[in-house]
Design goal:
Elements lengths: L3 E4 L2 E4 L4 E7 L8 E7 L6 E7 L5 E3 L7 E6 L4 E6 L8 E9 L10 E4 L3 E6 L1
Parallel strand pairs: 2-11
Antiparallel strand pairs: 1-3, 3-8, 4-5, 4-9, 5-6, 7-8, 9-10, 9-11
């Protein structure tokens, strides 16, 4: 059973940076692909980026394109999301997901495992 734990969230000023981490309880390589999503109160869960842990291929949605970098540390079973130039509109709960089962990685319903999330708050 795979468990995902996000960390690294917090409160920052607009223009600041944060690095979020998603640590898996088991060998994450067996799940091939990991993604980051976010969800603000009253809004749908939005895809941010995904990485194929085996091939290191990465894909980004336009949502935060140019302001985020997804990366992996297989030895630590961790996938990270570096975020730059944060804006108040980036305030949300950020989640990582693993075990891709669908056709479109940006579809939240296509993922089998989710972490509990880490809160990011950006003030102006």
């Amino acid at each position: 059973h795979l468990e995902l734990v996000e960390s690294g969230g917090g409160s920052v000023q607009a223009g600041g940076s944060l690095t979020l981490s998603c640590t898996a309880s088991t060998d994450i390589v067996t799940k091939y692909r990991v993604a980051w999503f976010r969800q603000a109160p009253g809004k749908v869960r939005e895809a941010i980026a995904t990485i194929n842990v085996r091939s290191t291929d990465t894909y980004y949605r336009d949502l935060l394109a140019g302001r985020v970098t997804i990366s992996q540390d297989v030895a630590k079973n961790t996938v990270s999301l570096q975020m730059f130039a944060l804006e108040p509109e980036d305030t949300a709960m950020y989640y990582c997901a693993a075990d891709f089962q669908g056709r479109a990685w940006y579809d939240a319903n296509a993922w089998g495992f989710w972490g509990q999330g880490t809160q990011v708050t950006v003030s102006s």
